[in-house]
UniProtKB/TrEMBL annotation:
SMART domains on file: ANK
Keywords annotated in UniProt: ANK repeat, Hydrolase, Repeat
UniProt record, GO biological process: glycerophospholipid catabolic process
Species annotation: Triangularia setosa
Protein name: Glycerophosphoryl diester phosphodiesterase family-domain-containing protein
Superkingdom to which the source organism belongs: Eukaryota
ANK repeat ranges per the UniProt record: 164-200, 202-234
Cross-referenced InterPro entries: Ankyrin_rpt (IPR002110), Ankyrin_rpt-contain_sf (IPR036770), C2_GPCPD1 (IPR057506), GDPD (IPR051578), GP_PDE_dom (IPR030395), PLC-like_Pdiesterase_TIM-brl (IPR017946), SPX_dom (IPR004331)
MF term (GO), any: glycerophosphocholine phosphodiesterase activity
Length: 796
């Protein structure tokens, strides 16, 4: 259910008695507060009576006042009618308030129909003054093809404005009907009518609706028809900015570049909404259960609650006579209040999680109870319990499935038979039992924010995997990525921080490696299924003498106390033969077949030894900042490699990384460290377990292809909501989104209160970096360190 935009009462004080706060009404509908809903509807009836009387009899309120009411958007036919339909569906149609409304509306519709002329319009009403439902609008909403083609031939229908100032073209673009949009544009052009009309409530033209909905073909059609792509709505946003904000980057790419210096208002001044923050810390003696209904993956279409008598998805054909049902979610042993969700579910639940703190020694379980509202109160009709850790023994000690989605049966209270199912996604956060000390003077996320992004400084330069990601297409000298030598080189070239990936081996050791599988072994085995010795052996055997030299000028794996001088690396035929041998060993692996190479291998790059997190912390000077990406395995990586989607348990994975940081960071160290991850659950755990290091969420923000299909990484909008809810310090965006709409940087920083960073191959182009600096980006992650460092130096 979607409601019209909420305006402040102060705009038109004389109509304040008819004010309907649709946002608050939406909340009451969601919570099932029927009495409050009736009160609001009763308030609406008097305004509607005045409105209808004018439409039918041209009596009642003055024309000036009526126009104010129409512009103000207090009478929202669609929203109120949906509420009434919802109440009827849930068994409340006998209430006098909905009855009054429906009777009033029915009488108006009958009189309206009796006064329609052969063209479907009222006699004596101009098209621009009438705010009655129009036959063409109704036909489009019902998607009645024959009626749409017939009614679209009349110019009065084409130019008719609803009470919100919407034309038939607005309605067609909202529905995403390319055929209707094409038909209407053709007829508007034939009659010489303007198609690019803004509505009253938001100032949106049809182009805005198409952009927000990600309708690529419709946006392209409207732009070709001459829609003004630089127009701003009442809040100062452009259609392009909405498209990018919602994650439709391909749609945003259809628009021309806009000189943002000439724009005012917009994302920086727009409200980002109130964020309900999660707990700030998981304390000793408790565990936190985080659950959301449905799936967190865009490629998974599931019904959150599916019962024989009701569903989380409204289906009037199947569930037309249901009573008022609700789902109650609680956790055994938790002091947190249970959550109650009305069925059908009105809103997307993925960023509105259920959070329960329970004792550490309690069995982690969620209880789902379905109830029906009656005059005597709620009556339980069914329930089910999910034992969240019951299947952990199936995967082995300290292991868990990468599929965090679970479905449990709901049993009917009377018959004890299965009445349906509930599907949800969950995470259990357990406390980190040690104090992780941050650099002196940077104890809170707020202090970190100021330190990382001071207003007077240029962006921080972060070396991506050191001196850059290894790629065959690069023409410059490349040192093996994620290695100590690469990190030292990046610092010398001008990077303030170095970014690297951290994974955990089977014997719980933190190592620096990017790829999911270790192709160097000749197999598709994941890193988390190897021991540390096996991981390091794959590095050693790349040297023709089994003893690779680091960029520090010494052999890293000599026995302590050895007086033997390390042998130099041969660059002759033996070296070339060894490189061919390594390539032959990897050629049958999935990762090598897909890319045709493997990073940091002999024969392609200046190969250096694989590094552990311990080595990085102890060998790098502390003035080099560390951006530590916790690279937890993702489901699509296991699927692509054709291996079982099972990995190390999330809490254990994070704790190993934190333990290593704690043990090998010198007391009093002032080294700056950032913790980041693409995996939302990892970000949540990092935020709940420690406060010494700032946490950043890395997201593609809708960039195609979106391989992980993660809903919380689908757009700038959801990324900001996620980061704010879980008290994160910042977000690292794929730079494409912010290049398309630079003013979104202001939204992230000023309205989200977050540090804004970017990554991507385009960050290696000086002109692209200059644009981001102008937009206010705080951190640039790049591969071409010297080139970008020189660019930033000039700008400073």
């Amino acid at each position: 259910m979607r409601f019209g935009q909420n305006y402040h009462q102060s705009f038109i004080p004389e109509w304040s008695e008819h004010y309907v706060d649709y946002n608050l009404l939406k909340k009451h509908v969601k919570l099932g507060n029927v009495a409050e809903i009736y009160t609001y509807l009763n308030t609406t009836v008097s305004a509607l009576d005045t409105f209808y009387q004018h439409e039918i009899n041209t009596k009642g309120s003055s024309e000036a006042n009526l126009n104010k009411l129409q512009w103000f958007g207090r009478v929202n036919f669609d929203a109120v009618e949906r509420i009434i339909a919802k109440l009827k569906q849930n068994g409340h149609s006998r209430s006098p308030y909905p009855g009054n409304f429906m009777a009033l509306h029915s009488r108006w519709e009958r009189q309206l129909a009796s006064r329609q002329n052969e063209n479907g319009f009222h006699d004596g009403h101009s098209t621009n003054q009438s705010r009655s439902p129009n036959p063409l609008h109704i036909a489009i909403r019902r998607q009645d093809d024959d009626a749409v083609h017939s009614l679209a031939q009349n110019s009065k229908n084409l130019n008719h404005l609803s009470i919100r100032g919407e034309t038939a073209l607005h309605v067609a673009t909202q529905l995403g009907r390319l055929d209707y949009t094409t038909l209407l544009l053709e007829n508007l052009a034939k009659d010489g009518l303007d198609h690019d009309i803004p509505d009253i409530s938001r100032g949106w033209t049809p182009l805005f609706f198409a952009a927000v909905g990600g309708r690529f073909d419709i946006v392209q059609l409207l732009l070709n028809a001459g829609s003004n792509q630089h127009r701003k709505d009442h809040l100062g946003w452009t259609a392009k900015e909405y498209a990018v904000f919602k994650g439709h980057l391909a749609v945003g790419g259809l628009f021309q570049a806009t000189d943002t210096n000439e724009l005012t208002g917009g994302p920086e001044q727009s409200l980002s909404g109130v964020s309900v923050h999660a707990p700030s810390h998981c304390i000793k003696g408790e565990q936190i259960i985080v659950a959301t209904l449905g799936s967190s993956r865009k490629d998974r279409v599931v019904t959150e609650v599916d019962l024989s008598y009701c569903s989380s998805i409204y289906n009037p054909g199947k569930h037309g006579n249901v009573a008022s049902f609700a789902l109650r979610i609680s956790a055994e042993g938790s002091k947190s209040q249970p959550r109650r969700v009305r069925l059908p579910i009105l809103d997307d639940q993925i960023n509105d999680p259920f959070i329960f703190a329970v004792p550490s020694d309690a069995t982690a379980q969620l209880v789902f109870t379905v109830s029906r509202s009656t005059p005597e109160g709620d009556v339980t009709v069914g329930s089910g319990t999910a034992l969240l850790e019951s299947n952990s023994h199936q995967f082995g000690a300290g292991r868990q499935s990468l599929i965090r989605e679970q479905t449990v049966p709901l049993l009917d209270k009377e018959t004890m038979s299965v009445a349906g199912t509930v599907t949800f996604t969950f995470l259990i956060a357990k406390p980190y039992l040690h104090d992780l000390q941050g650099p002196q003077g940077f104890a809170t996320p707020e202090e970190w924010t100021r330190a990382l992004a001071p207003k007077s400084s240029p962006p921080l330069l972060v070396g991506h995997r050191g001196t850059g990601q290894n790629l065959l297409t690069n023409q410059h000298l490349q040192i093996g990525e994620n290695t100590v030598g690469s990190f030292l080189s990046a610092a010398k070239l001008g990077a303030s921080f170095v970014e690297f990936d951290v994974q955990v081996t089977r014997d719980l050791q933190a190592v620096s490696f990017h790829d999911f599988s270790l192709s160097e072994s000749g197999t598709d085995i994941p890193v988390h299924d190897l021991t540390l010795d096996q991981f390091l052996h794959a590095s050693k055997i790349q040297s023709p003498h089994g003893n690779p030299l680091s960029m520090l000028g010494k052999a890293r794996y000599q026995d302590e106390g050895s007086t033997k001088r390390p042998r130099s690396r041969s660059l002759g035929g033996q070296f070339e033969a060894g490189a061919i041998q390594i390539r032959n060993r990897m050629k049958h692996t999935v990762d090598f077949k897909l890319k045709g190479f493997k990073p940091n291998t002999r024969g392609e790059f200046i190969q250096d030894s694989f590094a552990t997190l311990k080595e990085i912390l102890t060998q790098l000077p502390e003035e080099i900042g560390l951006d530590i990406e916790i690279k937890y395995p993702r489901l699509h990586e296991a699927v692509d490699a054709g291996v079982a989607p099972v990995a190390i348990e999330l809490n254990t994975f994070v704790d190993v990384a934190l333990d290593t940081i704690r043990q090998y960071t010198k007391p009093g160290s002032k080294r700056k460290m950032i913790l980041s991850s693409f995996t939302p659950e990892i970000c949540i755990l990092l935020s709940l377990k420690q406060k010494a290091c700032p946490v950043f969420f890395i997201t593609n923000a809708g960039k195609v292809p979106m391989t992980d299909m993660e809903v919380r990484a689908a757009s700038v909008q959801v990324a900001v909501r996620f980061a704010r809810r879980w008290n994160l310090t910042g977000i690292v965006f794929a730079c494409e989104a912010l290049l398309l709409s630079p003013r979104l940087v202001g939204y992230v920083k000023k309205k989200g209160g977050l540090v804004c960073a970017t990554y991507g191959e385009l960050n290696n182009q000086p002109e692209v970096v200059r644009k981001q600096v102008a937009a206010g980006v705080d951190i640039i992650v790049a591969d071409r360190i010297r080139l970008i460092a020189d660019t930033l130096a000039v700008l400073n």
